[in-house]
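#data-curation
PF: Archiving a pair of folding outputs for the training set. Convention for this channel: one message per protein, sequence first, structure tokens after, nothing in between. First:
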Amino acid sequence: MIPLVATIPSLFDVSAADASWIVISTLLGGSISAPILSRLADMYGKRRILVLTLIAVGIGSLLVAVSDVFLIAVLGRTIQGCAMALTPIAFSIIKDVLPAHQVGLGIAVLSGTLSLGSAVGLPVAGVLHATWGWHALFWVSVILAPLLALLAWLILPRDAVETKTRFDPLGAILLVLIVAPTLLVISQANAWGWTSPWVLGGIAIAALSATAWIPWSLRREHPIVDIRVAVSRPIVLTNIATFILSAGMLANLYLASQQLGVPRDVPGGMGLVAAQVGILMAIPAAVLLVLTPVIGPMLNRWGGRFVMFLGAVIMAVGYVARIWLDGSPFAVTVGTTLVSVGIALGLTAQPMIIMGVVPLSETASANGVNSLFRSLGTSVAIAAIAAVTSATSVAVDGIEHATRQTFHTAFIGFAVAMAVAAVLTLAIPQSENGLRNPVRSNSLVRKTRRSQS
């Protein structure tokens, strides 16, 4: 949807604030489903849950493809959010099927395929929209999702680790009641008002649910999220850094698409159509694919901690550079690509760190929680950009548009945030750096031995 960001209000005849639900709903669906589906994958088989997730993505895509009703589109996009669980499940499959010395390359290759999807999807989305209309974007997923589900079932090996324990439904419900209100508050507080009943009610629901969920999970032998593992220093610091880097990742392409698509008579706008925006945004999206042969050996040689630190530093430098790289579509693309180099390094390193410090039976679940922090980061990025835009935008024909001041303010803010992420990454214990020589606590070792036996 990135090439269509500027046209969503006109597509559905809704306000700019309402149009944001097309993005928010997907993040909400993914944030809720990723930790739950990832836990189910650890319990009942990664291949099985991956296939069911792909089927759900196809159903959500079909709802959007066959309807012009905004509420149905939001529902379909919410179900599409289940796709967010595919990444942590896939990372854990790599850990199961590859020898230790090849896991770094496997993670880099998988991350490269994610980038390839973006690189192909962005220009294709613009072309499909221009040729057959926006519904065509979703018919592609309607066709591909069940085909991929069939191939996954036929080709992927049976699960090497499958822990058949009882699912924790109350823990899952409480987790949803924490995540959903939190995301809604983050994404809508600017529109609703921080003192509105909706925002205050959401904060109260999330706080009360967290108060009940934490002791409940600590008493469970197999909770949705193992809090004792989640609060260990390397996991906490990695997830917080993930939160910040994911905000920078979303903002990079989102701000660039606005710069390129905003009308020329708005300061900082370049007036490109959706197809042109998609083609240009495919260049930074393809960076990860190009860097795949380099990132894999870097992860194996230096570990995830150093690679993530390097990525955060490059992102910070890239955002500073984007303040001056805003005079032409070419300059914007160069600046966006520079930030994408840091994204490629930073986000690829995270699963390497996490899978080095959790039991083998919880790799999908731990990566699912990490995906939740990615969602929270992207939601905060959208909210932050919306807040800056509302304070610095100009109206053209009754529609508010971001300006050069909007972009420069956002670039400075995200550069500072990426620098903070770099400092946090340095605080991750060196001994628990990636998969090379993980040092687990006694409780984790005992838990791993029990799962293996």
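PF: Second:
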Amino acid sequence: SRCDSASIAQITTPLPMAVLSVAGARIRTNNPLNPSEGYVVRAESRNSATFFGSNPQLTFIKGIGDAAVYHQVRLGGVIAFRIRLGSIWGGADVGGAKQPPQQERLYAGGASSVRGFQQNELGSLLYVFDNGVTIHHVPPGPGTDSAVFFTLDSTARDRRVVPVGGNTLFVANLDYRVQSPFLPQLLQFTFFTDVGTVWNRNTQTNFGGFRPQWTPGIGLRVATPLGPIQVNAGYNPYPPVFGQALFTPPRTLAAEGFTGVYCAVPTGTPNPPLSTFVNGAWVQEANVHCQPTFQPPPPKGWLQRLTFTFSIGPDF
């Protein structure tokens, strides 16, 4: 999943990384697995510095905190509210901004976050293709080498989605949990609404990246000794986000020198990123920024806007 340029640069050479982590929690609830009264406060700090032994490209300061409150109301219902905040500073210089290591970036979306999005898919995304891409050869001109560029066919469908993450996080959840009329000690229904966003603070001005997105939904909770098993259906009213389209050629093209990760663009895009043949492989031009020009087809109906998530254990 190291597909963006910063992540690739950070793992193509051996760089030492050392992290000092400190975490604390205060838990005052009446049940550790399925609380109905009380509160929880947690905080964690992770720090990577050169005097710990880390390479300067992998230095960062990271802080995450969340707080949850539970309150039982009449007829056995429980209102649960959680807010989660996070920020990270440092990382490698990418286009005038700092980009922390991928595994330390902040993500949102999923069964314990914003439930209208799949795991970590709230925020910027990369779309990875291994077919549906046309390779165009550019003949050499005076004093230039031959080159290739890649365009998306009309039938192109992404093979997988890679979350980019960000350096700033905001998530809030509001649940109303009620016991089922049947097997009330075993089953609960959850009516929820989630709101959240992830963005890169250093590449925006005046919090221009703070665009919270909210997703309502309903869930079913089944009590078990390991904690509740939860199935949620969150409604996502938003169109698919635009993102970079990256082409990872299949093995059949490796013999021709297509062994890297390449930017693909829609047909007709002016000045597409070029790749040249260097030492037996096609290499994309250095310092090329792949523009977020690809958008998956939008959902055709409200059923396709439902996001289903599954988890075991407490959601907050």
